[in-house]
Amino acid sequence: MAERLLTTARAIAEAIAQEMERDERVFVMGEDIGAYGGIFGATQGLLEKFGPERVMDTPISEMGFIGAAVGAATEGMRPIAELMFVDFFGVAMDQIFNHMAKIHYMSGGNVKVPMVLMTAIGGGYSDAAQHSQCLYGLFAHTPGIKVVIPSTPYDAKGLMIQAIRDDDPVMYFFHKGIMGLGWMYPNPRATGPVPEEPYTIPFGQADIKREGTDLTILTVSLMVHRSLDAAEQLAEEGISAEVIDLRTLVPLDKETIIESVKKTHRVLVVDEDYKSFGMSGELIAIIAEEALDYLDAPPKRLAVPDVPIPYSRPLEEFVLPSVERIVQTARDLVAE
Amino acid sequence: MALSRETLLQLYEMMVKIRTFEERVAEIYYEGKQPVFNIAAGPVPGEMHLYSGQEAVAAGVCAHLRPDDPVTSTHRPHGHLIAKGVDLKRMMAEIFGKETGLCHGKGGHMHLFDPELHFGCGGIVGGGIPHAVGAALAIKKRGEDRVAVSFFGEGAANIGAFHESLNLAAIWKLPAVFVVEDNLYAISVPKTASTAVRSNAERGAAYGMPAVQVDGQDVVAVYEAAGEAIERARRGEGPSLIEAVCYRFRGHFEGDPEHYLPEGEKEKWKQRDPIVLLGNQLKEQGWLTDEEAQAIQERMTALVAEAEAFARQSAYPAPEAALTDVFVQAS
């Protein structure tokens, strides 16, 4: 039988649907997640299947409904809340940062907050400074939040089921450019094989999306795809790049990172989030702490150069990591 | 109070100007996005939220404002900024992402800033409401007679910023006017599913300020309610709220499938097109002939065409310009 192909959006919606069938404590809240099916399609078909009691369209009240998800979770439900764009976190940050993330710790482990906060990230289509950010580094910096960032339809489904079953608060970041939306810039890898039966992917297990020997590229989300495209070009030049999709930042699979660095001796981090004080710096710090002696060259990183995401196309292209810049940086790294 | 012919014609012309701009932007927006729609393609990429159908609100309110009266707007800002008196060329250039644009290409359609007109907007729902409170606070502290106006949708009236802002404006008796554009939907979620009270005027009243709901398709009704509220604020008598009930003729954004709309609803609202309503009234009064209406349309079409030509001919910013403007003083 031919493999069944799904878009990432369909894979996420299927994961949620299967968990809702399995566990009546699971319900979904968010803006335009009902009749609209989610602005990025992550909840399509759920309202028809489960009705408005379990698939709840909310007013534009993120502090209210994300806080309500925290409250429902502490009472034993398994809520999934959708924050339409991660950029909108600001109005709900107290609930995310001071409540969702901290209640389990503050209660001395007595209270659980088993919820999923899923949200859209990423740019590349001129949506400018308030609709194009990634920001996973900000949440990974906050103790108490698990940070999940799938890059493919297969990973998206397995990680979503794992997230729903997890007893901790999980933030689940889907990039608009990996969802397989008909109106977004095309990405052939946004559609891929997804098994019909439910399955989980454990957190803290990076996936080597392409094996290589000359350098290690550490990345997540849409940048996995850009890095794979770059690795393809690099291979034509005789450079063998290993592309590691971290899949979760919290927990982080240090072992796979360190093992790869020990093999290739060179590392490039490709990150669509802001450069300073974020994912790229953290990964390089870990490598410096645990595998410095194995490095043959200083690590390099490509990330948004500490500016908000600009609107105009040439400006945005200048700040986001591109295939061309990944290729060039990898070449430079290998030449060192 | 009957409005003069001159005032009515000004309101009419402003509404035609906004509509003409928006409908032309819509045409340009689909350039490069056919036959396959790709939001990132064409001369105007990104999301596009147009104001067609709601012109009476911007025109009716801004007719009372001076250039130095602060206005905060939303992700659907074009109508407000045009009614405030923006240079269409610089606004269109910004929408094209050009160096000559209001924000040199950094802001785009949702993030238009014109300090000369004390105008700002943004893509975060409700984000501008507290800014109007702050602007009004600055005005009051300086003893000026300016008025700050915040436009936002009925969807934004469910976010905390709305409630905190109304309370602050009321306790500090600030010269602020809150204009709720109730276009019935927050993207796909109808007001009936998001708001337990019928009118946000009830909420304004609960915070201790005069508040009314008006027909937002009727520019005269908006004009009169706004005049009262803005004059009250100028006199130092505190804030007001106006909810104007209107309708989005083009959906939430370009490409909105609108499958959440009840059948026939939009057609029903289009029968009360605010421009047609006022045009008919003017014609019945003998204050506007078909020829005059056509001349106004032609003038507005020419203005928009001039803005478009300016935008197309302008250069893109240098890519490295992305690195500037993070700080006033970079080091």
Give the SSE map.
The complex is a heterodimer of chains A (about 325) and B (about 325).
Chain A: E1 5-7, H1 8-22, E2 26-30, H2 46-50, E3 55-57, H3 62-74, E4 78-85, H4 93-100, H5 103-106, E5 116-121, H6 136-140, E6 146-148, H7 153-165, E7 170-175, E8 191-193, E9 207-210, E10 215-219, H8 222-236, E11 241-245, E12 248-250, H9 254-264, E13 267-274, H10 279-291, E14 300-304, H11 313-319, H12 323-335
Parallel strand pairs in A: 2-3, 2-4, 4-5, 5-7, 6-7, 10-11, 10-13, 13-14
Antiparallel strand pairs in A: 1-8, 6-12, 9-11
Helix pairs in contact in A: 1-7, 3-4, 8-12, 9-10
Chain B: H1 5-29, H2 55-62, E1 71-72, H3 78-84, H4 88-95, E2 119-120, H5 129-141, E3 148-153, H6 160-171, E4 176-182, E5 185-186, E6 189-190, H7 191-194, H8 200-206, E7 211-215, H9 219-234, E8 240-245, H10 265-270, H11 274-284, H12 290-313
Task: Note down, in words, how this protein is organized.
The complex is a heterodimer of chains A (about 325) and B (about 325). Chain A is α/β, with parallel strands linked by helices and about 325 residues long. Helices cover about 35% and strands about 20% of the residues of chain A. Chain A contains twelve helices and 14 strands. In chain A, the strands form three sheets. In chain A, strands 3-2-4-5-7-6-12 form a seven-stranded mixed beta sheet, with helices on both faces. Chain A is globular, with a radius of gyration of 19 Å. The model of chain A has no long low-confidence stretch (mean pLDDT about 95). Chain B is of the alpha/beta class. Chain B has a single domain (about 5-315), classed as Rossmann fold (3-Layer(aba) Sandwich), CATH 3.40.50.970. Chain B contains twelve helices and eight strands. Chain B has helices at about 5-30, 55-60, 80-85, 90-95, 130-140, 160-170, 190-195, 200-205, 220-235, 265-270, 275-285, 290-315; strands spanning about 70, 120, 150-155, 175-180, 185, 190, 210-215, 240-245. The longest helix of chain B has 25 residues, at about 5-30. Chain B is globular, with a radius of gyration of 19 Å. At the A-B interface, helix 3 and helix 11 of A face loops of B.
